[in-house]
Amino acid sequence: MSHCYRQLRLPEREALFRMKAAKLPVRKIAAELGRHPSTIYRELRRNYFFDEDAYFRGYFPSVAHKLARDRRVPGRKLERNPELAHYVIDRLRSCWSPEQIAGRLRLAGHSGFRVSHETIYRYVYGAAGKQQDLYRLLPWSRRRRRPRGGRKPRGLKIPLTNSIGQRPTAIARRDDFGHWEGDLVAFRQVYGKSNLTSLVERKSRFAVLWRNPSRTSAGVMAGICGQLGPLPSALRQSVTFDRGTEFAAFPTLRSELGMSSYFCEPKSPWQKGAVENLNGRLRRFLPSDTDIAAMDPAVIAAICAQLNSTPRKCLGYQTPLEVLSAEISRHSE
């Protein structure tokens, strides 16, 4: 008997039907087919045909083969459950990722209303999903699934000081709150020099976004001081940047807020992965051809609020706002 499991083929199901009609015991049938008895028991249980009018009931090989084949169609669970499919599509339209949808269902404890993120992806990229163009609702809106790839690294822009290698290991482990990562989100030059500064708190993944009129370092640092200044001192301990010239005035953070600054190694922006992830999520709402200078600041604030109110797998499917609010409340007591 092979140790590599194979699905039953139609000829095997036809032989099973004949032997069952001859009233052979299941163990005898399994031995004849070279299968484990549990495989036969499972086949008879899962592919038993039950007619509501009671005219036809029993195990029929062609029907059993069709039932088994239909179960293997990608995303089939959502096709069989329109209510669950409607819930998934509604959350996709709310800019939730498949993992966030699946994780939130597990967190809610609905035992009969649960689906894996892989099933959602298969449904989106299956026949039913293609008819509805559901791929457009995914975070990256790709027509086909593909492995992730990093963006091209940036060059050396500032001196090799305060390297990320000097950063305490507790920050890397996300043991404490108050350690941030920062970056600049650029747009097409045809719209001018306006850009966004993006900050994310490493432990809670709480994001802060605001618009800058230019890339001058003094203006960027002034914006960071204005955004993080109202927070308790325990929630503004350090910030990690890449080596872009827009962060050259980092000593301002030490003098104004008492925050330490660390920098990625040259050509290694991936070392500040939290803010890179945030920027990727942000591009869903603000692609590179957005005229950010003409955008109402309230719209930017609304996008930021939506990101902070979306459950995250790394937080046990809590939202960044829930996690950081609980920490702020603890410091207010």
Automatic annotation (TrEMBL):
Domain Integrase catalytic: 164-328
Keyword set, alphabetical order: DNA recombination
UniProt cross-references to InterPro entries, sorted A to Z: Integrase_cat-core, IS30-like_HTH, RNaseH-like_sf, RNaseH_sf, Transposase-Integrase, Transposase_IS30-like
Protein name: IS30 family transposase
Taxonomy of the source species: Bacteria, Pseudomonadati, Pseudomonadota, Alphaproteobacteria, Sphingomonadales
